[in-house]
Amino acid sequence: MSLPTLGALQPLPVREHLDLLAAPVAAALADWAHVDEVAVTAIDPALADTAALSAAYDLPMTTGANCVVVSGKRAGEERVAACVVRADTRADVNGFVKRTLDVRKCSFLPMERATEESGMEHGGITPAGLPAGWRVLVDARVAGIEVAVLGSGLRRSKLLVPGHLVAALPGAEQVDDLALAP
């Protein structure tokens, strides 16, 4: 099976380059049935943010899949979710996400907490390997991306994942209308 390729990124087999992944991401992908369909690529960590990465590596913004972590409370219980949306959209945090989590108010999890609890770096948080109690919501538009660029848990690399497999990541749920249209 051939590795996904995109723009000027140099794909490497994930199974052979687990050192390019944060530990929880490597653990989640190591035995995943589709691991051989996923590539990892080293990047300049200064270019980890979507717009900079797209410009430097000749990638359309529609190939990026951003993962943001949000939380809210209901009856004293905190509910956390990672939301994966195409980079040219944004998560409907105060509408769809709030209703899906059934919380009164939904906001972004503070960066320090998101990185500490996920074991991933800021700018590299990805839907693979997140804590078991977090929901992973993947916008259906992500499935339409031929090759999605996702974080690897580290700023110095990215995952290249066929879009239809993003919602097949362990613990992920594909949902419609998670993102606001571009």
From TrEMBL:
InterPro entries: YbaK/aa-tRNA-synt-asso_dom_sf, YbaK/aa-tRNA-synth-assoc-dom
One Pfam match: tRNA_edit
SUPFAM superfamilies: YbaK/ProRS associated domain (SSF55826)
YbaK/aminoacyl-tRNA synthetase-associated domain sequence ranges: 45-161
Transmembrane regions listed in the UniProt entry: none
Domain of life: Bacteria
Entry protein name: YbaK/EbsC family protein
Species per Swiss-Prot/TrEMBL record: Nocardioides cremeus
